[in-house]
Amino acid sequence: MSKQERAKELYRLIYKVDGKVSFAEWYAKGESLKSVAVPSKGTYEFSGWSNLPDKMPDHDVVIEGTFTPALHDLVFMLEGGEYTRRRIAFGSPTESPEVPEKHGATFAGWEGLPETMPDEDLTVNGRYENNSYRLTYVVNDRHSFTVMVPYESVIEPMDYPKKDHYAFSGWEGLPETMPDHDVTVEG
52 and 27 share a domain? Predict the structure, then answer.
């Protein structure tokens, strides 16, 4: 068989990546195709070769290498434990999960949550802030003073008022910790 006849029996397997020819190999019809090194592309993961046959057909074949953005874990921590975990592609928008309501508190947000996913795993922390309520001190139904106190905080009583020839009887209705509503105490 002549060299020209042998060349006619060989077919090209053409590898393309991102629409450009990466390289080509010659195979005879019916020959098993050997595995090829996986290409790399920065922050993307190789997804595979499209239309790659097991054996070479009797014509040239073009296969395309495809990539997908690398996936990373985004872990949302809430009150000392893992609340939820998501796999997000590098560069994709990050979205905050819904959080449960907490009695007497307001969710303050996720600390360190970027708008788009970085090229690494990331852990962010959620934080609640206790709501504050009014604590109003009233003396002899006239004089009053109001302070804002966070929910569940220990209440330090206001100094009692001094009046010549009178003894202060104390604050009536003053709780030890601030409840989830406004409070008025009388002295």
Answer: yes
